[in-house]
Amino acid sequence: MRRVVIVENHEPFRMRLASFLGAEGDIEIVGQTGSLADGFSVIQQKRPDLVILNLKFLDGIGLEEFYFMMSAYPQARAIFISC
What we know:
The chain contains three helices and four strands.
């Protein structure tokens, strides 16, 4: 089972994505949030295998800082989305 966290500020899209992915037999949505700060908190608590993140959130912190923060969780992969 793959554990997934979704970090997306557009709630209707986030909910649809969680519903779509949650219907897959090998995916468990372990957390979802609408802000990057909350996202890192959820990642620390849930330790997912995959983080789906709105690319627009990286404007404030920069891609390098994001990778540095994620380096504490080397098992986690990230997919960036933009909508």
